[in-house]
């Protein structure tokens, strides 16, 4: 860890202004990711602007605008509160499940919703400064491309970077078509659809998201939906808790009131790409179909056919296939096996 | 040995428990030493080669920096003084990734850490030897005579003529000890004597190694280690960090604290090596073993060998006329491997006990029956009688308690919803020894109260040594528990065995008991009286109106113990549930039945056993340290990557002890429980997974991807 200054922002304007003038300043929220990375010498901010005092923690129904009827979750609310809030549990159980599948009780008590979206990859080559990593040190190469890449991407990677994005919460948010609300450095509001929030690595893996320096996440908006009775977050990992996903699937279904026909399907995958991976091919195939294991399997096959595994993660193709089927099945049964 | 009026054998809660949970127990870095300076290590970023240059200019100018020590300015140390793993800053040579190459000492920890980032190092890099898969082919006969080929009969012929055989290779990965308390030291010089507050499983061993390495006399080194936050072997031998703290303290002329980070633990304090084990079993159709071969290939460090004895269980577990145990080793650019809980036995039993399960399956025989059929009457490796052996009882008691009869013999037949359920069994063993240990007992009477203090340079790893010694002394002196004080963990006390190799309890408790008997004898003699029943030492202190009395003993193991083969034995039972879609495994239930002689305290003993079991479950399912062969670095450097079991991974744990009174092993009949708890566990889990799914996984850990 290197020396840095520490200040506390008193309001959102002060926070964004503090960062605007200093390209090496960072917001400090729960600190559960940023401080770890500073200790590892991966992040080297010269200034931390503590934003935990800003009153941006509220969870409230949205009464106007495009997401009217939905729910707004404060960017500085804690993960624990979001997961346990009665309105989240009732209307967005998928989000609640995904948050609770991540980290540990203690960490979720510290972690904020905005910070969660911006947590950085867990790629070991990113974490160890003596290793090459284009995300940490652009131009140094990708240690994982031909290295130990069991945990890495099977979709959307580039020669520059094969890292995966680690958040569980964000996988549910991707499936729920959330909208990230941001305050820009100049004090304007802007909304970013979730699908556009995170990026694929391409030639600039150092850029995880489309958030500009100094932009503050103020809230995450969840549009209204009819998935509450049929959604499920499946997380496959090397141990039962407190491990990042080998692969995860957030699945949500809306089926016709008469019979078993799929009206809407949402599938997002974690642990497979540099961003939450919406399984759009599978989703499209399911619409209008009967909700049967055979149709789930067909959709999963179609989605996973496009996977490009690396040397050590070939298993993720089969695992992704099975996990899509199981998650859809669990969603259909209201979360029960 | 169990007696209604005795404290030993009863589940007394830890006497140090309250101090620990209230934070009063001082671990190595907790000592309020005044005027402390802080040291931070910096480490090599290559695995093989030489340092060309170290530029410390910027770091020297950084705020608070007091000294920077590298091979260029370090004092001359004795590299053969007993510190393990090298890295003593004596040469520019690099033998493994993350080797210590220097130390920054500063006024604060933060300043030292910051300055360490400002140092730049250049190297002449060599291609590291880090790909075990490839290196294995060049493995050769070890130097260690204990690991020479051990042959009995003709294994080759027996395998050739076998009616049934199993010949398979079992792989276990590098593991790390990762005790909760990372290694840490405070060094404080007073004149030419240094006090080292440093977690040490072998108090006197740490003293000797530090002294020899620093080129001073043992009396000039004092080790203080009253509490240890786990060690599992990594705090048995001592590593460079201990001595470098002393060097730094001398250099800056004030006390220095050095604590390793979790990430630094992977290449500072040893590891459990990677083992490639081939097991061959030959048997008759009715399940009698005719041959057992266990051939292990492993790696050492570049300069030094270390081999955990994977073939040990195979030497003694089963009766077979033909036996072969071999080891081959190849140097690798990693830190020196070392003793790790259940050294050799935990990993070796995975291979042996998996192979036995495979044989039972081929024979269509219950795996318990197969083991019962091959129970040896004497130690097959040396012909000695057992001091006692409980394998049969462990299996029988365990089968009943676990409900083994509910197991479906054919794999894959027990499906419940999305899960496949399976049962597995295995056996294990660990040798029982007592080592020479001295102890002092002091009695002090105030009015009608007698207070006892027992003193010895023993170590409590967190396992309950304080408590069992207080129980032992209380019984032997006729005092209640709260009138006994146990003082350990200091090299100024009488020398004692280490808390290693499961010798702690037997060595310490026998010494304390002997000392208490001796003090009673001496008090009796002093009284000059004849008693109808032997009075206790505390009664004698009162009747003789003495205020202070003390004695010392140098306890030795029984000479007759040599005539017997003494071991703890266990049987492990696991029930697993495997998700048929995702391959995730959960151990629903685990039972260990253990015959380990006298159990001094069933409560702390249970903790020891289930602690070993839980690590064994980690070994089976989650733990693996992965090396990138291109750079020789570990890619699993933190608990986010190195997965020890978490609460949710562990189901119902049960421990049963078989009652034994084995006075052939030692006077108190204590056989030790520290290691045996992990032995056989991984095999029981792997065998249960086979029973659940029909998939035989011979490569640990059994992560979900292997079960798809
Ligand atoms: C041991 C461990 C295990 C974990 N396991 C999991 C897991 O299984 N699944 C999972 O999903 N996560 C896991 N996590 C990650 C955890 O969820 C994140 O660390 C946490 O959500 C980050 O939130 P924070 O508030 O602490 O962010 P911080 O560390 O404070 O910030 C992270 C980044 O976001 C920026 N930032 C924060 N808030 C804002 C804002 N409002 N606007 C703009 N920028 C902002 C910061 O500047 C920083 O760059 C784990 C973490 C640890 C330490």
From TrEMBL, chain A:
Residue ranges the record marks as coiled coil? none
User: What is the superkingdom listed in this entry's lineage?
Assistant: Bacteria
Is this entry keyworded Flavoprotein?
yes
Q: Does the keyword Flavoprotein apply?
A: yes
Q: Which Pfam families match?
A: CO_deh_flav_C, FAD_binding_5
The protein here is known as: Xanthine dehydrogenase family protein subunit M
Sorted UniProt keywords: FAD, Flavoprotein
What range(s) does the FAD-binding PCMH-type domain occupy?
1-227
SUPFAM superfamilies of this UniProt entry?
CO dehydrogenase flavoprotein C-terminal domain-like (SSF55447), FAD-binding/transporter-associated domain-like (SSF56176)
Q: Name one GO molecular function term.
A: oxidoreductase activity
TrEMBL record, chain B:
One Pfam match, given by its short name, reads MoCoBD_1
Does ATP-binding count among this protein's keywords? Answer: no
Q: Where is the Aldehyde oxidase/xanthine dehydrogenase a/b hammerhead domain?
A: 22-127
Supply one GO molecular-function term.
oxidoreductase activity
The reply to whether Oxidoreductase figures as a keyword in the UniProt entry is yes
Q: Which InterPro entries match?
A: Ald_Oxase/Xan_DH_a/b, Ald_Oxase/Xan_DH_a/b_sf, Ald_Oxase/xanthine_DH-like, AldOxase/xan_DH_MoCoBD1, AldOxase/xan_DH_MoCoBD2, AldOxase/xan_DH_Mopterin-bd_sf
Keywords annotated in UniProt = Molybdenum, Oxidoreductase
The name this protein carries in UniProt is: Xanthine dehydrogenase family protein molybdopterin-binding subunit
Which organism does this sequence originate in?
Answer: Spirosoma sordidisoli
